[in-house]
Amino acid sequence: MSSGQESKFTVYSEYETDTSQTSKLLRKFKETPFVPIGMAGFAVVVGYGLYKLKHRGSMKMSLHLIHMRVAAQGFVVGAITCGVLYSMFREHVLKPKE
C-alpha cells in the first residue's frame, strides 16, 4: 500500500472509533448522566408494572396501565429535572469566575 492509502484508512478508522454507538453513548452519559438514569428508571417502572399486572386484583386493565404510564413518566421527568439542576449547578456554581 502506498502511504496515501494508509493515511486514508487511518483517518477513516479514527473517525469510525470516534463515532461508534458505544462511544457516543458513553460521551452522552458523561455529559448528561441523568438521561440514561431516567431511561433505566422508566424500564424498571414498566417492568415492575408488568409484573404487578398479574396480581392487580379487581382493578381494571386500563386503570392499571394509566397508573403505570404516569409512574414511568414521573420518574423520567424527575430524572431530567435533576439533570437540569445538576448542569446548572455545575455551570454556575462550580465554574471558576473569570
TrEMBL record:
<dbReference type="InterPro" id="IPR050355">
    <property type="entry name" value="RCF1"/>
</dbReference>
<dbReference type="GO" id="GO:0097250">
    <property type="term" value="P:mitochondrial respirasome assembly"/>
</dbReference>
<keyword id="KW-0812">Transmembrane</keyword>
<dbReference type="GO" id="GO:0031966">
    <property type="term" value="C:mitochondrial membrane"/>
</dbReference>
<feature type="transmembrane region" description="Helical">
    <location>
        <begin position="71"/>
        <end position="89"/>
    </location>
</feature>
<dbReference type="Pfam" id="PF04588">
    <property type="entry name" value="HIG_1_N"/>
</dbReference>
<keyword id="KW-1133">Transmembrane helix</keyword>
<protein>
    <recommendedName>
        <fullName>HIG1 domain-containing protein</fullName>
    </recommendedName>
</protein>
<feature type="domain" description="HIG1">
    <location>
        <begin position="6"/>
        <end position="98"/>
    </location>
</feature>
<dbReference type="GO" id="GO:0043066">
    <property type="term" value="P:negative regulation of apoptotic process"/>
</dbReference>
<dbReference type="InterPro" id="IPR007667">
    <property type="entry name" value="Hypoxia_induced_domain"/>
</dbReference>
<keyword id="KW-0472">Membrane</keyword>
<feature type="transmembrane region" description="Helical">
    <location>
        <begin position="33"/>
        <end position="51"/>
    </location>
</feature>
